[in-house]
Write the structure tokens for this entry.
Amino acid sequence: MGKIILTGDRPTGKLHLGHYVGSLKRRVELQNSGEYDEIYIMIADAQALTDNADNPDKVRNNIIEVALDYLSCGLDPAKSNIFIQSQVPELTELAFYYMNLVTVSRLQRNPTVKSEIQMRNFEASIPVGFFTYPISQASDITAFKATTVPVGEDQKPMIEQTVEIVRRFNSVYGEVLVEPEVLLPQNTACLRLPGTDGKAKMSKSLGNCIYLSDSAEEVRKKVMGMFTDPNHLKVSDPGKVEGNCVFTYLDAFSKPEHFAKYLPEYASLDELKEHYRCGGLGDVKCKKLLIAVLEEELAPIRARRREFEQNIEGVYEMLRKGSQVAQAKAARTLMEVKDAMRINYFQDKELIARQAEAYRECK
Ligand code: TRP
């Protein structure tokens, strides 16, 4: 059996550094490792609509933004098949059948759904589509027989839910579906990159994001305004590194060679942290290092984005072709699912012959 990747993002805004370290960067590495036989990257517009039903233009307009972010980070359509979820209707059909295999109470226990319901103040009026999106996500994953799902930590419960559906399906109907494995970021700072304000998560609604498409000047301003240690008032004060965004971001982005290049008086991030803890190291110096480190990562992404932005028609054409390839694969899986579920009446010539025979006999 081949190794297959499926993953994706909701097109509700441009992608930010949280997306990048949480999953995007890894995807590009996996893509270039040559270890995967098929790679599917999905723009999850149907899922985005589950909590944006009254704002379809937001979803519509962000498809191109997410596609541009993908391409500028180095996802290569020659190796990774990029597609739009709603253009593969087979996914919806699969979800409808999987719904029979999941209970309401199991969905209510899904920690990601729980916290999202709270965040959106849905408590008393949860759209059914939103409530069931983990099931739709199981369709996304299983339709491609994905073995590997690289995602951020918040998506782990979705993969667990998918594994349960796969087991249940295979035990009831026979071995058709493949159990996926979640692939989380290796660096703990990347598991959940905080917002620039120190809040637990980078999120558009909190206004604490650094976007992949931000200009160098925007990045500089955002880093200069970043949350550090509120008790580190004077340079000479001892500072806290834990919960200090500048250091969390350095944990996520800095490499040993950055020190020789930008701050040769420190041999490593550990030395810098030690100095900060003891007192005598100012925030601005650390922030300037972070700006340089981020620029090294973001400048090439920004430059590639500029190029793709000049060819929007080409990007849509790439998505159209990607969606066709994805649909062909999902259709094959759906056929197998329907065979296993015994809802393949017209394909099953024997069924018709047998029933016809039975009725002829009792005449
Ligand atoms: N839920 C993911 C997000 O919020 C998007 C997504 C939809 C996804 N279907 C998926 C991710 C399947 C991985 C696999 O970004």
